[in-house]
């Protein structure tokens, strides 16, 4: 399904450790706050700043990531495998809370910042896949992972109301 190999240093140097299931606290395996590069085979993984999948996060899709970035270097404390079927993704965005107002069905990466729906969405329902929602149209700012069958009636709960500018489905890996 999915595998992540974490490395102590950038460019896959130093000690390494492999995971095929979630780990809520890297301290349990003596790997807290020491990850600098990763390789992912198959499904994407999410690396979190805090234990129990909290704080800032990075999504790692299949491939080699020779540096996790200065903001998360040596700051990763938990890892979570994306288990959803990522083929044929679909999310419905709503203009107002509680799934009210204009609805928009999205099936691919979409830059809302370039259209009429920038910074107006307030709730969503995920039909299929897992989605990365971003505050800014360049993928930056506040981010949120919306997962299959998740219904989020009010973006105020995640400090995201009227801030969504870009979203994209997470890409399935081939596991090659």
* CATH class value of the largest domain: Mainly Beta
Shape: elongated
CATH superfamily of the largest domain: Crystallins
At CATH level 3, the topology of the largest domain is Gamma-B Crystallin, domain 1
How much of the residues is beta strand, in percent?
Answer: 35-45%
Radius of gyration: 17 Å
The largest sheet has its strands arranged as 2-1-3-6
Count of helical regions: 0
Tell me the series of helices and strands, N- to C-terminal: EEEEEEEEEEEEEEE
| N- and C-termini, Cα separation | 11 Å
What's the number of domains?
2
Number of distinct beta strands: 15
- Low-confidence region ranges: none
Structural class: mainly beta
Largest sheet entry:
4 strands, antiparallel
Mean pLDDT: 96
**Which CATH architecture of the largest domain would you pick?**
Sandwich
Helix content: under 10%
Write out key terms for the chains shown.
2 domains, 45% strand, four-stranded antiparallel sheet, 0% helix, mainly beta, Gamma-B Crystallin, domain 1, 15 strands, 176 residues
Short précis:
With 176 residues, this protein is mainly β.
Strand and helix map with partners:
Blueprint: E1 2-9, E2 13-19, E3 37-42, E4 45-50, E5 54-60, E6 63-65, E7 78-81, E8 90-96, E9 100-106, E10 110-111, E11 123-128, E12 130-134, E13 143-147, E14 151-152, E15 166-169
Antiparallel strand pairs: 1-2, 1-3, 3-6, 4-5, 4-7, 8-9, 8-11, 10-15, 11-14, 12-13, 12-15
């Amino acid at each position: 399904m999915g595998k992540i190999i974490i490395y102590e240093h950038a460019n896959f140097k130093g000690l390494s450790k492999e995971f095929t299931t979630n780990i809520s606290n890297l301290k349990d395996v003596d790997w807290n706050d020491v990850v600098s590069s990763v390789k992912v085979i198959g499904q994407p993984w999410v690396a979190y700043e805090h234990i129990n999948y909290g704080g800032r996060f990075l999504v790692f899709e299949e491939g080699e990531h020779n540096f996790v970035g200065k903001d998360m270097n040596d700051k990763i404390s938990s890892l979570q495998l994306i288990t959803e079927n990522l083929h044929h993704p679909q999310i419905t965005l709503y203009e107002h809370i509680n799934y009210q107002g204009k609805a928009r069905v999205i099936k691919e990466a979409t830059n809302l910042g370039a259209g009429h729906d920038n910074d107006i969405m307030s709730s969503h329902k995920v039909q299929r896949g897992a989605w990365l929602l971003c505050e800014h149209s360049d993928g930056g700012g506040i981010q949120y992972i919306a997962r299959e069958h998740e219904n989020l009636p009010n973006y105020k709960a995640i400090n995201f109301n009227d801030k969504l500018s870009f979203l994209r489905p997470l890409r399935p890996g081939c596991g090659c």
